[in-house]
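Here is one chain, start to finish.
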Amino acid sequence: MAQRHPGREECLKMLDKYGTPPHVARHCAAVADTAVKIAGALADNGFVFNLPLIQSAGLLHDIARVRKKHWKAGADYAQSCGFIKEARIIRRHMTHPLGPDPLNLKELDIVCLSDRLILEDKYVGLETRMDYVIRKAHGNKIVRKKIDKARVKNRRLINNIESIIGISIDDLIGKTFNKG
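Its structure:
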């Protein structure tokens, strides 16, 4: 039997019930919308994704963001609600490394990439988002090195996705969101 994924309204109710602050819920919605848009563009080019899973995992990925180890707390909550696949994505979204090969993309990759393109509730693109993370680290050279390495991999993946969908992700998402 296939697992049921909570719809948008159910996810929004879960965020509210959990006590997720409104600004975090707006971030989650922006990540979900971005992820669905990217996955949809790839689907138009022959890729197959579980769009309901992408949407629900995107909407719930930061449900516990104001808690320590929010990825674990959020995953535990989603799992307790019976949403096992969402829980797996939530648990890994902070540390999942993205590879440059779009042919191996999974739902987890789409949600993680989208989270790396959203600042608060706005699509800002990879460079602005990564620069924000570096500034937030207050000069920590280890964090900067890690982020810069991830930035190169993420940029390569974005370039590869864009060559498949025939449009920049900035343009694809810009049709939905106001950038910056």
